[in-house]
Amino acid sequence: MLLVIFVIFGISIIMIFPAISEAQSEQKTFVTHSGAVVRTSGEVLDPLYTVSSVEFDPDQYLRNFEFGRLSISETGQTIRDYTIIAEDDKIQEISPGIFYNVWTFNGTVPGPTIRATEGDIVRVHFINNGSKEHTIHFHGIHPAGMDGVFEPVGGNGGQFIYEFEAGPVGVHPYHCHVMPLEEHIVHGLYGVFIVDPKEKRPPADEMVMVLNGLDTDFDTENNFYAVNTIPFYYQHHPIQINTNELIRVYVVNMVEFDPINNLHLHGNLYRYYPTGTDLVPSFYTDMITLSQTERGIMEFEYEYPGKYLFHAHKVEFSEKGWVGIFLVKDDPDKNSQKVEYGT
Ligand SMILES: [Cu+2]
Q1: What are phi and psi of 300, to 5 degrees?
Q2: Distance of alpha carbon 68 from its chain centroid, rounded?
Q3: Residue 301 alpha carbon to ligand 1 centre in Å
Q4: What is the mean pLDDT of the chain?
Q5: Short-list 161, 155, 189, 186, CA closest to 175
Q6: How much distance in Å is there from the Cα of 66 to the middle of ligand 1?
Q7: Helix (H, G, I), strand (E, B) or coil at 86
Q8: What SS3 class is residue 228?
Q9: What is the Å distance from ligand 1's center to 19 Cα?
Q10: Residue 7 alpha carbon to ligand 1 centre in Å
Q11: Phi, psi (degrees; rounded to nearest 5) at 114
């Protein structure tokens, strides 16, 4: 009987105040420049141009390396062909309810991690499907004409082929170099380029961490910080590793606006190779400091299982998203599944 009264009461409330039940799922509706309609109950930052949105999986990005399409030159040199497409009209939900207009290489921020061996011919087929001019500027050694600075590639299908010999050994960023540079980088046009030594580094569980920030209110200060774009992602989805297994992290700092960033590992220390150019580590530490595009390789093993934090020791950054967890599992059989690379 009581239930019936409640149901009748509930229905009459909805009949008298129909807006109440709708208000809870109220959505904003936007008409984009292309005429498409977007609905969201979240905030929308920066103009929307299209409805295409980014599908970015930080778990997948973490251990994904692109070795290119392989061929051999007449002189016997390995050629690696990659295709990178720039776009500047994607929408990404970078935090629950926060939608941001990201500029992407191959549809994501960061763009693909491309990988070659020292001395290979790297050939990047660049297509600019954005509305603005873009380029790819690789850090490393290459001819002036391949530097991605003075030859902006026009939007709406402009093309350029970057070709150079991979080197030096290490981990290098690549990014768009069109002015105003800050805008092009902050919106997400960057990625990682790894050059392996001819005699490979020891097998390891390898991963890429791009430290980045998001200025969502355009006041040239970051509102969010992250490792691999999504704030707090690896805190909610800990990175699973094994005890006594060699872990190798390629870390690149792409945070703009803030002069420095840093990386602190809990319950452990790592061997650190600045820029990865030397095969002998320079430091044994739990703390590195990185300025813009500074990068390096960290190597470590965990002896004891459990959860360990890694984060910016600049506490403001970690509290705004730049924090993660390694979940170390005791799995002695895992050694047979070590990641092979350089093929
Ligand atoms: Cu650009």
Answers
A1: -160, 165
A2: 19
A3: 38
A4: 87
A5: 189
A6: 22
A7: strand
A8: coil
A9: 45
A10: 58
A11: -100, 150
Contact yes or no for 23/8 (Cβ under 8 A): no
Ligand 1 centroid–CA 70 distance in Å is 28
User: pLDDT value at position 23?
Assistant: 42
Q: How far is the CA of 155 from the centre of ligand 1 (A)?
A: 10
pTM over the 0.90 mark: no
Between 16 and 172, where is the model more confident?
A: 172
What is the whole-number distance in angstroms between the Cα of residue 189 and the centre of ligand 1?
6
Instruction: Output the CA 135–ligand 1 centroid distance in Å.
Output: 6
The Å distance, Cα 153 to ligand 1 centre, comes to 9
Tell me the average pLDDT across 312-331.
Answer: 94
**pLDDT tens string 15-72:** 444 444 444 445 666 554 445 556 666 666 554 444 567 888 999 999 999 999 999 9
CA distance 327 to 94: 24
Q: Report yes or no: 45 and 98 within 8 Å, Cβ to Cβ.
A: yes
Query: Ligand 1 center to residue 241 CA distance, Å?
Result: 36
Rg of the Cα trace of the chain? 23
Element containing residue 160 per DSSP (H, E): strand 158-165
The rounded percent of the chain whose pLDDT value lies above 70 is 81
- All residues at 6 or more sequence positions from 262 whose CB lies less than 8 Å from its CB, including other chains: 287, 288, 289, 290, 312, 313, 314
CA–centroid distance, 109 to ligand 1, in Å, is: 13
Q: At 319, is the secondary structure helix, strand, or coil?
A: helix
Spacing, Cα 176 to ligand 1 middle (Å): 5
Are the beta carbons of 302 and 310 closer than 8 angstroms? no
Instruction: Output the CA 86–ligand 1 centroid distance in Å.
Output: 8
Cα(84)–Cα(66) distance, rounded to whole angstroms?
A: 11
Question: How far is the centre of ligand 1, averaged over its atoms, from the C-alpha of 329 (Å)?
Answer: 42
- Reduced to 3 states, what is the DSSP secondary structure of residue 266? coil
Q: Which two tokens stand for residue 220?
A: 């040239």
Quote the ligand 1 centre to 304 CA distance (angstroms): 45
